[in-house]
Amino acid sequence: MEQYEFVNKTEYGPVRAELETILQKMRNYIRKNNPDLDFNWELIGSGRKHLITRVKNGNRGFDFDFNLIIDDPGDGNKWIGKNVHNAFLEAIRYAVKGTGFKDPEESTSAFTIKRVNKKQSKVNCSCDFGIVYYDNQGGYHYLNYFKENGGFGFLERSFRYDVDDAVDELTNYDTNSWNWIRAVYLELKNNNPQNKRSFILYVEAVHIVYDQVFNSPSEDDDDYDDDD
């Protein structure tokens, strides 16, 4: 089974900075060529929590995940999925020119750009861009490609993870809790037969540590017999 290791910030930090520059170029391109379509971005997943990993001695490198957040189309309105997809595809192609990243690859719910070391036949790093919007009820919608008919549309994702409050509570209770979360996360990453996404594993790591800190019986609680 593959074994993962954490990537040092001195290595991934410059890559994140370059991606931020690419994102700004994308935004400028979108604003110029599609005035009705603007976006902000949000780093998600392991990169947001500084838990970036890669396979030891692997050839896939490390990766980032960004949500590209467009406006809610409003009641009774909807985005034309194909138009949104094409606009962002053009913007990404434009923004990566002159960088070390290749043209974007497309999957069902993301664009992926990769920096490839051809001499060593491996990917140094990559980044996934997902296009999403939030409705006024807090719903989360992401752009999806439907392989069966070749169409595009937005799907609603119902689940949400409120782990930030749990992490704050843990670290306020014990400053070493974050190191514990990191250790559990890496252990889950290295024992992941179901190939769960990194963010799901992070959520599980937080829940495991939270339960052990706040919900486990205290070792100081003595067992006793009621003789009455």
Q: Structural class per helix/strand content?
A: alpha+beta
**Strand/helix succession:** EHEHEEHEEEEEHHH
Ends distance? 56 Å
* Secondary structure: number of strands: 9
Total of DSSP H or I helical runs spanning 4+ residues: 6
| Sheet with the most strands, sense and barrel status | 7 strands, mixed
User: What spatial form do the alpha-carbon principal axes imply?
Assistant: globular
The averaged pLDDT comes out at 89
Percentage beta strand: 25-35%
State the assembly state of the protein chains. single chain
Helix content: 25-40%
Overall radius of gyration: 21 Å
Low-confidence stretches: 221-228
Give a structural overview.
- Strands 2, 4, 5, 6, 7, 8 and 9 form a 7-stranded mixed β-sheet that branches. The protein has a two-stranded antiparallel ribbon with strand order 1-3.
- By secondary structure, it is an alpha+beta fold.
- The chain is built from 6 helices and 9 strands.
- The termini are far apart.
Task: Set down the secondary structure blueprint.
Elements: E1 4-6, H1 9-33, E2 39-44, H2 45-48, E3 53-55, E4 62-70, H3 81-96, E5 105-106, E6 111-117, E7 122-134, E8 140-146, E9 151-157, H4 163-173, H5 177-189, H6 198-215
Parallel strand pairs: 4-7
Antiparallel strand pairs: 1-3, 2-4, 5-6, 6-7, 7-8, 8-9
Helix pairs in contact: 1-3, 4-6, 5-6
